[in-house]
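tool=predict chain=A
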Amino acid sequence: MDSYYDDGGCCIVHPDSANIVLTGGKGPSSQTNWSFVVSYSYDFGATWTRCNLSDTAPGWCYALAVAPYQTNVVYAGGCANGTGAVYRSTDFGVTWAPTAAAPADTVYSLVVASSQPNRVFAATPSGILLTTNAGASWTNVWGQRGVRAVMIDPLDQGTIFAGGDSGVSVSYDAGYNWATMSQGLDGRKVTCLGGAGLLLAGTVGGACYLDTMPTGIGAAPVEPVAITRYVRPNPFVVSCRIVGHDRDQFTIFDHAGRQVGMAKGDKIGAGLPAGVYFARVMGSDTGPIRIVKTR
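tool=predict ok
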């Protein structure tokens, strides 16, 4: 792939095409300023074009994020000349301009709301910051120190996760209120988050941790505490046992809503490949329960 950087910072594959790859970091040691650089490739990494965004000022790109439903829009975050910096591209990363304002501290992670390309969360050492106007202004919505990662749940845009020195926290109301969810992390610092239908947390000096979250599908009601919640380091296996329904019969659906089998509540997922599935009690109006099977 791209071997240009003195030290890398981030790499993403564009959601529209696997041929489009963007990387970010700081320039090579042959540069005197080690500037904020973003590179893009339109041939799956065979050739690269590089954009020095901070010009003569020293900098470092730590984060890249594409707007999910306006995918020509890409944000790059990091630091430049000793302060936080965010740049924005509207042509898939070919040309860039600094946003009108940026967080004061280094931006380590960015995430863009699905249907609102101007709504962006940034993880910084001084907390989670939010812009609703494409970087014209920023508001600190959670002042937790030492935040390194932020993620919007792709299945629920109102659920925001943050990771950092204090573990993992979650907001269920789009960033207005926050609660910790670090049980099982053994006090480890979190540097990155990912996942869909489950949460993966990369930690300092430890493994990648998995948290399965009991949620429903669509707007259907969900039984509270319907599935045992686990946090496990690698390697991990998620038990597919639905608490309180050991004797009940379930119909099993895949993530697309297709029926893939039937099972009892004490033995969900036998014979199915790894993935996210939904279970509904047969003969009941109970809302579907999400289960995760990982190998």
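Residues 215-239 have pLDDT under 50 and may be disordered. DSSP finds no helices and 24 strands in the chain.
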